[in-house]
Amino acid sequence: MKTIRLTSVLTLALLFFGGIALAQTDPGVRSSTGVNAGQPFASVTASANDFDFFQTGLEQFNEHQTVTGENPGLGPRFNLDSCGACHSQPAPGGTSPASGIFPNIGPNPQSQVIGNGLVNGSTNTIPFFVQANGPVREARFPFFFNRFGNPNPNAPNGGVEDLFTVSGRADAGSCSLQQPAFNVAGATHNIIFRIPTPVFGVGLIENIDDSTLLANQAAQSVFNRIGISGTFNHNGNDGTISRFGWKAQNKSLLIFAGEAYNVEMGISNELFTQDRPLPGEDQLGSGLPANCLNLAGVGYPEDVTHSGGTSASTVTSDTALFSVFMHYLDQPTPSTTSPGGAASISRGRALFRTVGCAICHTPSLTTQPSKLTAGLGNATANLFSDIEIHHMGVGLADNVSQGGAGGDQFRTAPLWGLGQRIFFLHDGRTTDLLAAIEAHQSSGSEATVVEELFDLLSRSQQQDLLNFLRSL
Amino acid sequence: MNMHPRFSRSLVLLGSFISLLARAQGPPQSGGDFSSNPHPSVLPSDVILVKGAWSSASDSVTPLPEGGRVANNAYSNPYFRLTYSLSPGWTEKYSGPPPSDSGYYVLAQIRSADRFKAASRGSILIAAQDLFFTLTPAGNALELVNYDKESLTADYKVEQPPTLVTMANHSFVRFDYSSPVAELHWHVLATQIRCHMVQFIFTSRDTNLVESLIQEMNKMTLPVEAGPISGRGGGEVPVCIKDYAREENVLERVDPVFAERRFNPVPVRVIIDKEGKVKHIHFLSAFPDQAKAVTDALFQWRFRPYLRDGKPVEVETGILFGRSPRRAISLASEAVNE
To answer: Do B104 and A394 touch (CB under 8 A)?
Structure first.
């Protein structure tokens, strides 16, 4: 009797562990091939002037800003004090870092702002959604609150609610600002998050002509679309296709840089010329209080083109240098062998196409000639995106409208460099690639059928597909 | 119209009350101390409250292509007048996205229950393409399926080229293909109803399973008009005519004025009554302000009544406002004729 019971237990255990062995899993951040992103184009390296420009852009990208002093203009509200602090995984220009995950850049820098003295702990608290091992986050309230603290669905907001204020810093004078009501927003489900989009290869995305994007859209519409039919977001001024940001709301990298400098760090510049109040302080309020304006004491805009400069890199504004840095960043280099070996990655690539992922995640598009640097021109951009916005269903909807994109529409996230990203989806809700794929299905999503087809694959086929994605 | 003084006083009071209520909402705020509110109202989850361009209609009674539902183990669609019974264990877990601005509809996404073994699982997509707004150079369902076949990439293998078959006593075009690497089989059955291609796409690893599902299609009910070329309305529903709103048929026309430049296509299906007036407007995709502007304009249009056998009949046609989308290039196709 005892023997029979032992045999049964052993059989069950074998089945259990066998099942685990067979189950498909996210291979995790690829570490075996070194850091495969963050380098300039070869054409940039080959030109002394261009390389100097790139290096200066990189320095500015990583520079920490202060309210006054050498790098003035920070605040009065901000999410962090440097581009490179948020865009750092796996190299400057990337996305949210983490400790303990290759290449071990460090904890979420937003979780460290009191400890490192960036903000005053008596006037600021770390919001509940910022964790040391979580992603860098930007917060938005989809709706304004009424004066009772209830979200008002008839008053869409959607603007960025900066996490921190300069209040209490020695260099902030008498400026006293409250942080947004994050806890109330959390309790009323009136808060959504965004994580930084990696900027490797974005110069290539900017240099794809509208005609190429439109031709790709038309080409994807002829074959069995299995539920998919996207559209483009457009720039409100000239009607051309906009392409940067989670909802493709920004037209160019220069605008993207200028807006981020203003919104994320509170630094006014030649594109966004005033210090930015919160949406509620501005649109129907009174703006920033006078004692929170011109804290740097240099006037506006705080970042300008330097007429006294002696070279391209010293004349150029910080904002334009960020743009130069992003333009000159090459696309990430995928691995042909890791993880899972070349055969698995090759099968995964084919499966990615055949189950329909590639309908939206267009593997490559060709750029037009470039005047900036040869590497950007007539190049194959392996972006894995159609730059269209798609309905992603109630499961991913954030109820924030940007340009022509509604609350459930998102730009197809470019997948290049995915192998070395830690956090997935617009709000960084998961570190598990499989969970990110599954999140593509929900009511109202264009990707539900494709996810169903992914589910129809065998476990080894699913593993091939995951290996392929982590090879990017 | 004479209004009773007491009634008008009540209206004034009601108006003041509403305006007070509105004021009580106060200015919108981002932050602040809301601790005095012990019971904050919570936004509903799983609801899209802020919509971009979306579908809408001038009334809530006239059936719409996207108005079908899965209920009582059947998918039924009053617009297309079809009913499709689901096999036991097959359900719709998630509803589809709104219609696209190129007239593509996900009508239902049906899947086998999770309890089924992997090899016995499958997916049934019921979709429609409005032939008035398709980006593909095809005039009917047959041409669309032929175009699909010509567009098939090297990743797939044709198992059965587009072939006419009879399902539920109606003509369909059937096209089968597979992916050797994915070991998946696709079986497409398409017909045409009210100038839409209506297609059923079965996908599974198991061809026997799909064949049995296809045979179940024989229990389906369809309108008389259904056929890969013939489905052009008529009878109980309006006849559908592409580009009926061309110059010679429009007697009075008022162009809509869009207050904001949005650069999106605004595809609209209208039903024109026997007197040439617009009876119903269906926006496949439009922002609310665009839908209002087009509605205000279209209800002032007058059409030449469409005559069939000398008698006026209702007509359904498509009109594209806003920006025209780019259409696909024409492919040389091996046409299968009905």
So the answer is: no
Question: What's the gap in Å between the CA of B241 and the closest CA on chain A?
Answer: 22
pLDDT of residue B31: 56
Closest CA relative to residue B321, chosen from B252, B271, B257, B273: B257
State how far residue B38 is from chain A, nearest Cα, in angstroms.
10
Distance of alpha carbon B200 from alpha carbon B172, whole angstroms: 10
What is the separation of C-alpha B274 from the centre of its chain, rounded to a whole number of angstroms?
24
Contact A278 B31 (CB under 8 A): yes
Which residues have a Cβ under 8 Å from the Cβ of B115 and sit 6 or more positions away?
B89
Whether cis (ω within 30° of 0) applies to the bond prior to A279 is no
Tokens standing for B297? 């304009």
| Segment (H or E) for B10 | helix B5-24
The Cα–Cα gap between A162 and A179 comes to 8
ipTM of the complex: 0.91
Predicted TM-score of the model (pTM): 0.92
| Chain segment B270-282, per-residue pLDDT in tens | 999 999 999 999 9
Question: Which of B27, B37, B46 shows the shortest C-beta gap to A394?
Answer: B46
CB contact under 8 A, B135 and A222: yes
Distance from CA of A435 to the nearest CA of B (A): 17
Query: Does the distance separating the beta carbons of A404 and B53 come in below 8 Å?
Result: yes
Q: Identify whether the C-beta of residue A180 lies closer than 8 Å to the C-beta of residue B30.
A: yes
SS3 A52: helix
**Closest by alpha carbon to B102, among A225, A408, A239, A399?**
A225
Q: What is the mean pLDDT of each run of 10 residues along chain A (472 residues)?
A: 50 47 87 98 98 98 96 97 98 97 98 98 98 98 91 95 97 95 95 98 98 92 81 94 98 98 98 94 81 97 96 96 98 98 98 96 98 98 98 98 97 98 98 98 97 95 98 98
Give the up-direction half-sphere exposure of residue B8: CA atoms within 13 A in the CB hemisphere.
5
Give me A67's structure tokens: 């309210």
For B28, the closest of A144, A391, A448 (CB atoms) is A144
C-alpha to C-alpha distance for A397 and B43, rounded to whole angstroms: 13
For B183-232, what is each residue's pLDDT tens digit? Answer: 999 999 999 999 999 999 999 999 999 999 999 999 999 999 999 999 99
Binary contact (A221, B98; C-beta < 8 A): no
Helix (H, G, I), strand (E, B) or coil at A153: strand
